[in-house]
Amino acid sequence: DNQRPTGVHADDYRCQCDSGFEELIDPTTLARSCHNIDDCPAVNPCAPGSCVDGINDFSCSCPEVGYQSLGRSCARLECPSKSALHTTRST
């Protein structure tokens, strides 16, 4: 809060936001509030999936077919080789 209030709400008060949030001012009402900071990188590390913003973090939502999530990236699932499918056991 401003030590010497001016009577202008936007100038007199500040939000103390938790980690992962930032103060934003509504340009119409000049009301202040805390909003989550988007942690998804500008270049999508989750491609061909999508980045899911969290608080101080992000995760990946990967396509259901052919990919698996590694948390912060999507990995393409590889098909096993024919030789791996046709292994025999010796007794």
Instruction: Write the element-wise H/E pattern from the N-terminal end onward.
Output: HEEEEEEH
Helical segment count: 2
Structural class: mainly beta
How are the strands of the biggest sheet laid out side by side?
A: 1-2
Q: What share of the residues does DSSP label as strand, in percent?
A: 25-35%
Shape: rod-shaped
Q: How many beta-strand segments?
A: 6
Residue stretches low in confidence (pLDDT < 50, at least 5 long) are none
Largest sheet, in brief, is: 2 strands, antiparallel
Which whole number gives the mean pLDDT? 85
Distance between the termini: 80 Å
Radius of gyration: 24 Å
Q: How much helix, percentage-wise, in residues?
A: under 10%
Give me a quick take on this structure.
The chain is mainly beta. 9% of the residues lie in helices and 26% in strands.
Task: Write out key terms for the chains shown.
single chain, 91 residues, mainly beta, two-stranded antiparallel ribbon, 2 helices
Report on the architecture of this protein.
The chain has 91 residues and is mainly beta. It is 9% helix and 26% strand. It contains two helices and six strands, in the order αββββββα. It has helices at residues 9-12, 82-85, and strands at 21-25, 32-36, 50-53, 58-61, 67-69, 74-76. The strands form three sheets. The chain has a two-stranded antiparallel ribbon. Strands 3-4 form a two-stranded antiparallel ribbon. A two-stranded antiparallel ribbon has the order 5-6. The radius of gyration is 24 Å and the shape is rod-shaped.
